[in-house]
Amino acid sequence: MIRTRTDGDVRVVTLDRPAARNALRPEDLRSLREVFEGEAEDGTTPPVTYLRGAGDAFCAGADLDAVAGLNDPEAFARRGQRAAAAIEESRSVVVCGVDGAARGGGVELALAADVRVATPRATFGEPGVDFGLFGAWGGTVRLPRVMREGDALDFALSGRVLDAEAALRTGLVSRVVDDPRSVADAIAAGESDALAAIKRRLRDRRGDETQEQAEAAAFADLHDAHAEEITRRNEERGSRSDPAELPSRCDRLK
After folding, report:
1. pTM summary value
2. Contacts (Cβ under 8 Å, ≥6 apart) of 27
3. What number is the average pLDDT over the span 94-105?
4. By the number of CB atoms within 10 A of the CB, which of 58, 64, 132, 204 ranks highest?
5. Cβ neighbours, 10 Å, residue 239
6. pLDDT tens digit string along 142-182?
7. Alpha-carbon distance 19 to 29, whole Å?
């Protein structure tokens, strides 16, 4: 079951099968994809989405009862891939908060997010190799983009479990904090159009020249949209004896 609610500038999407450690059945994957593919084009979707799991786990991956009974395993893999792609292609910045266990498909959903944040009690594993499978929801594509190739191979081939600090060292997550939601809130404090432009540019998989052209165009659009703020900030900087004293947005949030 997938639950959604909007809290200010953050949409909260919850994987809500705590009794099954939020393991995902085919119908759950469909619902998750529909949540992200159904985003409004009129700007009413909040600029940041916070993806979390209910209970004491983030997501145990695919529901093994469903996997054992599959008549068309390729179609099941494709369904998971479409759900992960919908997360990755979301109009909003997706912050994934991992508290507790992320296994198999749970890791793959996290990989599709823009920012992955763990609590100290989070753990990560790809146990499929222990029973002759592997993560096929886009994990073999995204994992070596996020971790170094050697770390990705070690993680996937060994089936070993990484704790939060190991996940941080290997790049699987970018922060370890007590409250991952606070990271989503901090990102949501930025200008929504800038957040969207940054995501589009950093997610662009086209050639370098094409990406740089798009980057320059996005910069020009944001410059025009925030001209008054830029001028105000420049005037404030000019009035200070030490430009380094000018507070950043992060300073103002403290």
Report:
1. 0.85
2. none
3. 97
4. 58
5. 8
6. 999 999 999 999 999 999 999 999 999 999 999 999 999 99
7. 17
Q: Tell me: the pLDDT tens digits for 239-248? A: 664 544 545 4
Q: Cα separation of 200 and 210, whole Å?
A: 13
Which structural domains are found in the chain, ordered by start?
2-187 (3.90.226.10), 204-253 (no CATH)
For residue 221, give both structure tokens: 């659009």
Query: For residues 142 and 112, what is the distance between their CA atoms, to the nearest angstrom?
Result: 7
Residues 6+ apart with CB under 8 A from 37: 86
Q: What confidence category does residue 235 fall into, taking pLDDT thresholds of 50, 70 and 90?
A: confident
CA distances from 100 to 60, 136, 155 (A): 10, 22, 18
CB 60 within 8 A of CB 103: yes
Please name the amino acid found at residue 205.
R
Helix (H) or strand (E) holding 141: helix 139-146
Q: For residues 221 and 227, what is the distance between their CA atoms, to the nearest angstrom?
A: 10
pLDDT band at 42 (very low <50, low <70, confident <90, very high): low
pLDDT at 40 over 70: no
CB within 8 Å of 198: residues ≥ 6 apart: none
